[in-house]
Design goal:
468 residues; alpha/beta; Isoleucyl-tRNA Synthetase, Domain 1; metal-binding
Amino acid sequence: MPEFRLYNTLARRVEPFAPADGQTVRMYTCGPTVYNPAHLGNFRTFLFEDLLRRVIRLAGWQVEQVMNLTDVDDKIIRKAAATGANILEVTEPFTELFHRDRRYLRIEDAERYPKATEHIPEMIALVARLVANNVAYIADDGSVYFAIDRFPDYGKLSQLDKREIRAGARVAQDEYAKENAQDFALWKAAKPEDEATGAAWDSPWGRGRPGWHLECSAMAMKYLGETFDLHAGGIDLIFPHHEDEIAQSEAATGKQFARCWCHGEFLLTDGAKMAKRVGNVANVVEMRDQGISGTVYRHFVFNAHYRKQLNLGDDSLEQSRAAVNRIGAFARRLSEATSGTAALADAATKAEKAFLEALFDDLNAPEALAALFTFISEANKELDEQGTDLPALERARAAFRLMDSVLDLVPEQEVDAELAAWVEERLEARRAARERRDFAAADAARAELTARGILIEDGPEGTRWRKG
């Protein structure tokens, strides 16, 4: 295996990477704020992280990934207050949608999806440590702020110019501009809209709620320890979010927070960053309604290096659709072949080597794709020869399985709409039967699905199905 190397934002260079214990990569990835559907720009980041965890396993390590779900923040409270709802009523549907969208894009399950609202005690304890360490102070209204001038390393991740920092000036909102670096809120005193929407908790400083930055530090350290291997997210999170995470975590523990920081670039739409406030947002549901498969979007995203901006143009997805169709046709041909040639085995070995070298060099997915398509071209040529070398065919299949285990681009078998509708109806009947504890009816519904060749799998985020 080649050496695994990643670009570390903290060091501003590509460096060799390995887990501290030599076995398990403990990785924290910032998840969605669940007040609206996650857009395709968000999912570009989540796909880069999916690629990262798959390549880590390819390198021979295990993964312990924690992806938080932010279910309390300014935007969620504003939406809840505007509709007369509590924050749970706002966030739960979008949490479920996120998991459906994620599965549609074949993004693997993280090991944990902690919710901010379920970790308030851990957040309060972290604030108390910071107050005790004299790096946080209590304001007149009961809010608690982090004093950035008391943490000498503030700005080391974003390389913020210290002259831009106005120490002692307070910022209560969750996001702020680089030129306005100020003391940030760790704990926010409750306002009437917080109380009305269920976004306030008791604390030593009075009723209030956590600041956005605090949430990730508390949950990361609970599940991964005070120092862990890798923190990843979108490039827009470097400042202020990740900078503030480092400050509050390291000021509390005196230890390095994350050993390596990895950030993905923006998805652009006609040259502009995709963002809800800009109004150029597209999401997975819209993509699915247009008949665009998850594999097509995966290919589109992997066609650019994760640290390069990627533009979503009119014909981008059509080009990826054609590429995915080519992969699917090759997968079918390879599975139906009966033998190969010595040159087929050589092509497989060459492709696998190029594939690994590309991905182990800072996740160079475009080069990995190039290795895959070169292999497809050479393999198709050798399969035309109709050789008699069965081990060569098995070698080619093994190489293709390895490559697809990471890229996951072989399209699913087509399922007609009528069958899909029937499956969803039977799954709903099974779910309703289980809710009323009519297990005989639930088993009967499952038997009907099995008889039609439908395989189902129950998981924490619902039931998946596929054609067997």
